[in-house]
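Pasting as-is:
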Amino acid sequence: MSIHGRMEMNNRETLEIERALMWLGVGGAREKAEKMYGFLSLVVKHRNWGRLLGRGEHGPLMGKHVADSLCILETMDTKQGQRVADIGSGGGFPGLILAIARPAAFFELIEANRRKCSFLALAIGRLEIENARVIPSRAEEVPGESYDIVLSRAAGKVKQILPVIMTMLRPGGFYLGVKGTKEVEEEERAARTVAGECGGQYVGVFNPRLTEARGRVAVLIVRKRGADDT
């Protein structure tokens, strides 16, 4: 591809991300879209670091990875100083995308794969993302009641990960899990059963309105009960 062709793709993809951010009401959409595009370019460049992308996935496109990350913003109310964990962060989706979009909150990317951790640290440094850091660990090893919000995408089945997530959350905190529409019904049933057994409260399933994610994913929501809950 020529330099001119790459510049056109850059402009087109950045514009698509910017439009999504503006639709979601994210301030500074242009600057954040450019930084997200820069992150996606790093993912493609270093795709072999622990298999950051699946086979057959080409180019930093405004496709499922960005859309599946951004759609969480429709349900995530972040406040200044809140701590957010992205478990099984992998290539940085959704954690780094959301860290760029929501600079007021602090994001910890929990990942056990060393090569993926190296890539995430590289991306954070290269893009100067000051509100994120890498935790090279398994979720089970993280200190309890450390987070206001815990995120996951392709990090495992609810019946296995929800008990761990409930220990990570502070009372009143929320788990937001991105699930494919083909699996969400099964995962919803599991959440209804498991949540009550580990101190959680099943809230519901949110179907995104963001065009690029609509009909492909849903967000499963579980709240950790607090002392005031009856």
